[in-house]
Amino acid sequence: MGRRGSKDDEEEEEEKSSTEGTREDGQRSAGTPVVFNENGDAPGRYDIFQYQITNRSTTEYRVIGSWTNKLNLKVQNMRWKSGDPSLPPSVCSVPCRTGERKKVVKGVPCCWHCERCEGYHYQASEFTCELCPYEMRPDANRTGCVPILIIKLEWHSPWAVVPVFISMLGIVATSFVIVTFVRYNDTPIVRASGREMSYVLLTGIFLCYAITFLMIATPDVGVCSFRRIFLGLGMCFSYAALLTKTNRIHRIFEQGKKAVTAPRFISPASQLVITFSLISVQLLGVFVWFVADPPHTVVDYGEQRTQDPMAARGVLKCDISDLSLICSLGYSILLMVTCTVYAIKTRGVPETFNEAKPIGFTMYTTCIIWLAFIPIFFGTSQSAERIDRNPGPVLSENRSFHISSYGNAGYGSAQRGGCPRDQCSQWRSELLPSPLTMFLSLSPGSSQMYIQTTTLTISLSLSASVSLGMLYMPKVYVILFHPEQNVPKRKRSFKAIVTAATMSGKLSQKGGDRPNGEVKTELCESMETNRASLLKIPESPDLAPHPWTLSPSLIIKPNTFL
């Protein structure tokens, strides 16, 4: 036992002396101390490498620092995908920008997606987006809501300039005709056209032109009231007068075929009573409209509520629905259709007598104008896309994201919602309509209200222009440039006019089979037979032939007239 114990002690002494000798030798070699920790281990020395792409488009590991009890990093030697030596962020989620909400990742409460508040939503809090009130839109930063800009049809707009120009020309022309008729009020042409009814018709034509200015004026209670009154009143004046005239012509010639007495209610006073009775129906309808729905203005936010909230506009207009508008014009359209029917019935009246043919051409053209107007007006109303309170889908970028050691943004970078910028732009362009589609549907330049207003005013002006041009311009031309034709002609009684018109039809039917002289002799004998009865029939100057349009075939010898 003694021998073994002494042997162990000798080994420990040898190990201790060997260690101390090694330390002394290490401290003396190369002048660098050799250090051991408490466990007898030497301290660690590490080189830090980065996997980089070289200029030759090859990859290799390069030393960018070392660690010996502390970090020695050479940042300037580091390289990232973009070539920028600055360190990219290496976090789970980056702070969201203004107008974006945080959408927490399920199962990772400290990480989130940044989702932009789209459409008419604004950032109400850090985690929610809310919809703005209907009359408001989000501001530029989407941190609150601001009122939507209110617009109206401006006088300088192309939608207003064209109808206003046409109306001004029409008002000048109508005023010129009225002044000419008043100045030459007692001349044969003015008398033959029916002075009283002509002035009523010219008043209606003037109102049709003037309504354009009310339709474009800034809406308020007064303007909306006048719109309701005069919108259908101008047409009612015009077509009530034309209907009364065509009905009178029809009754006169129908009565002349049956008896020698003149029909009732063909005097100028009777014609005025009939005309204003027809007009009173329109005024009564407007009065009921005022009582049932008093006029007021509204702001329509739905008409131009575009996908882009910044382009949204509210349209200030009178509260007149399409149905109310058609009801207001419906009675006038009924008068127009009835007048057209009478114009067709009197189409056989010789053109040398009164205005049956010009009135007929006027009504045919007017019907064509309004047949084109109605589809455009209601087609525009139906095709305009109404956008509801939540226009368009809200873009969602719920894509998974990850930490990439060498990703799109470099080491430790995080993709915002996992949506690259170019890809997100593509998604947004697919969700939003094209600029052309937005322009044609709901852009401020092509508002539904603008198109309907322009179409309505131009249709009214064209209808008035047709009546003015076909019925009165030929008369004004003769009055001013051919006064020699505007002279009194031999007065003809009602029966003489009707008999001449009837025999004119016989002449056209028998002229091809019988000698011309025989036919004329029969015409003269027929007039001579009714000579006694002609003395008792009141004169109808409005049915007298136009002085400038007498047909040679209807010229009768003087001794056949009274």
Question: Could you explain the architecture of this structure?
Answer:
The N and C termini lie far apart (182 Å). The longest helix has 28 residues, at 356-383. Strand 1 (46-53) and strand 2 form a beta hairpin. The protein has helices at 2-28, 158-183, 188-192, 195-216, 221-231, 233-258, 268-292, 322-345, 356-383, 421-431, 435-441, 448-471, 473-481, 494-510, 516-529, 531-534, and strands spanning 46-53, 59-67, 71-73, 100-105, 108-116, 121-123, 129-131, 136-138, 145-147, 149-151, 297-304, 313-318, 403-404, 413-414. A three-stranded antiparallel sheet has the order 1-2-3, with no helix packed on it. Strands 10-12-11 form a three-stranded mixed sheet. It has 562 residues and is of the alpha+beta class. Among the domains are: 45-77, no CATH class; 100-147, GPCR, family 3, nine cysteines domain (Tumor Necrosis Factor Receptor, subunit A, domain 2, Ribbon), CATH 2.10.50.30; 158-382 and 446-502, Rhodopsin 7-helix transmembrane proteins (Rhopdopsin 7-helix transmembrane proteins, Up-down Bundle). Helix 6 runs parallel beside helix 8 (322-345) and helix 8 packs antiparallel against helix 9. The protein is rod-shaped and about 170 Å long. One of its GO terms (cellular component) is plasma membrane. GO terms for molecular function: G protein-coupled receptor activity. The chain crosses the membrane at residues 159-179, 199-219, 225-244, 265-292, 323-344, 356-378, 449-472.
